[in-house]
Amino acid sequence: MNLSPVKSVSKTVDYETRFSPDFLQPRLMNTTTKNRFRKEPVRVVSPFAEARDELFQQIMRCGVIDAAADDQRDWFDNTMQYLADRYHELAPSELDELRVLGERFAQPPKARKAV
């Protein structure tokens, strides 16, 4: 078993190789990958989608899921009036659809029977 220290091997490079134009060129890494700083196209969100997301957030924040049915009805009446004022672009049919979605979202999960 040889326990002697490793000898350092110095590689000699002549002057022409060390300072040649090819040697001095910076090496580009991952030149085949896409530019990661490219901007994504701006996605336009519809007023219906914004109102739906806001409604779901308010349902979660205000604790509507655990409320009594009468309290939920009052809450939805007030909230739908607020959404109609805030999102004036929405048609009455879209507001009705939002209310149905919100009421379904506010229902407690159905219990599953053990199999």
Report on the architecture of this protein.
The chain is mainly alpha-helical and 115 residues long. The chain has helices at residues 15-18, 21-24, 47-62, 69-86, 92-106. α3 (47-62) packs parallel to α5 and α4 runs antiparallel to α5. It is extended and about 50 Å long. The N and C termini lie far apart (68 Å). The mean pLDDT is 79.
Mean pLDDT equals 79
Low-pLDDT runs: none
In DSSP terms, counting alpha (H) and pi (I) runs of 4 or more, how many helices?
A: 5
Find the structural class using helix and strand composition: mainly alpha
Summarize the biggest pleated sheet.
none
* Ends apart, CA distance between termini: 68 Å
Q: Outline, from the CA principal axes?
A: extended
Features:
115 residues; mainly alpha
Layout of SSEs?
Blueprint: H1 15-18, H2 21-24, H3 47-62, H4 69-86, H5 92-106
Helix pairs in contact: 3-5, 4-5
Quick summary:
With 115 residues, the chain is mainly α. The chain has 5 helices and no strands.
